């Protein structure tokens, strides 16, 4: 298998990131996102880097997959959990190691930065993704997630 390079996303990747997020929302939740709002949300990461960073995996010289990294301070551990969010691999690039390359790159980066670990959330029904995460050494947490939205669709 050919090595899959992973790089930091740039503003030139915003269209790909918006398209990927919209596709992921549809595939996982059958939810159509407001593309103008999504565009502003993705752009907001580049406007204020403290919000997170995107990573892009390339295959055959073009963007094939992406994810967003955010941080959550843990007072219990005196360090940051790195959250993997907005994961998407284009359909034609699946089962070619794209997510594995993204994950291994992020894991190495997090370890080097002194993060306390990696976390992500996945729909309960998405068993294929769960198997992928477990194969990469991640363990299921014992928490349920709750939310209360303050915006339409939130």
TrEMBL record:
Residue span, N-acetyltransferase domain: 4-154
Which Pfam family is one of this chain's hits? Answer: Acetyltransf_1
Q: Does the keyword Acyltransferase apply?
A: yes
Superkingdom field: Bacteria
Keywords annotated in UniProt: Acyltransferase, Transferase
Q: What is this protein's record name? A: GNAT family N-acetyltransferase
Give the organism, scientific name: Tahibacter harae
